[in-house]
Amino acid sequence: MSEFSANHRLENKVAIVTGSTSGIGMGIARRLAAQGAHVVINGLGDAAIIEQERAAIAQEFSIRCLYSPANMLSGTEIAGMVQLAIDELGGCDILVNNAGIQHVAPIDEFPDEKWQAIIAINLTAAFHSIKAAIPSMKARGWGRIVNIASAHALVASPYKSAYVAAKHGIAGLTKTVALEVAAEAITVNAICPGYVWTPLVEKQIPDTMAARGLTKEQVIHDVLLEAQPTKQFVTVDQTAAFVAFLCSDEAASITGAIMPIDGGWTAH
């Protein structure tokens, strides 16, 4: 494969990446744009900074990049985000469900509203986006859905009941939809990162410190990286590259797979 074709293997495809104004999602959006895909980014943050990032992606990679402020708690707004891609960019070929939130607490102290929000954003939002995107993929005769799960889709950790339940749900949703669309040239997979150093991980450190009575350094080394035999955080770039591969034609026979990228965590 020539350098040009390798760098432009997704030319003129249209990708939606939820939760992509920072962290893993932004890395994925930039990687898909680098391969020629037009991209819809989505997420929270300062409007001026988001616009700066959106314009930078479009200019740097010579693609169209749109921003959708769709609230992942609203099925109607999620469907509107998919419709934006269809109306403005011609369709939806690639969907990456990355949006997520976290809360750490013992089950008997876990706030009901946190449970409901985590299930809604980490699991139900993926249902709504997949449901909205599948008709466009079927009409275009090609599609890639990548759900960003977690090592917690495969194993559990204490104090994360809602997150672990949602990510296990993502694994089941992935397998089910993969079977439904297998004959339509649409693949559906989930990747399961271990700990990636992102704002989401950084923000949960104080809660874990409180829940376990540990210092910040102890949380990082004895909790976060304790499970990863490599003793290294997974990087955003590694995660984005994995997603890009799953969106390629070379990955056409990979579907319904729940794949760890976790430094050996789930090999225990």
Explain the overall architecture.
- With 268 residues, this protein is α/β, with parallel strands linked by helices.
- It has one domain: NAD(P)-binding Rossmann-like Domain (Rossmann fold), CATH 3.40.50.720.
- The protein is 49% helix and 13% strand.
- It is built from nine helices and seven strands.
- Strands 3-2-1-4-5-6-7 form a seven-stranded parallel β-sheet, sandwiched between helices.
- The longest helix has 29 residues, at 112-140.
- It is globular.
- The model is unreliable at 1-5 (pLDDT under 50).
Quick tags:
268 residues; Rossmann fold; seven-stranded parallel β-sheet; 9 helices; 49% helix; globular
Count of spatially separate domains: 1
- Superfamily at the CATH H level? NAD(P)-binding Rossmann-like Domain
Number of helices: 9
Largest sheet: 7 strands, parallel
Average pLDDT works out at: 94
Strand order of the largest sheet: 3-2-1-4-5-6-7
CATH architectural type: 3-Layer(aba) Sandwich
Q: What percent of residues adopt helix (DSSP H or I)?
A: 40-55%
Number of strands: 7
Describe what is shown at a glance.
This protein has 268 residues and is of the alpha/beta class. The chain has one domain (3-195, 234-267): Rossmann fold, CATH 3.40.50. Helices cover 49% and strands 13% of the residues.
SSE layout and pairings?
Elements: H1 3-7, E1 14-17, H2 23-34, E2 38-42, H3 47-61, E3 65-68, H4 75-89, E4 94-97, H5 112-140, E5 143-148, H6 161-181, E6 186-193, H7 199-212, H8 216-224, H9 236-246, E7 258-261
Parallel strand pairs: 1-2, 1-4, 2-3, 4-5, 5-6, 6-7
Helix pairs in contact: 2-3, 2-9, 4-5, 5-6, 7-8
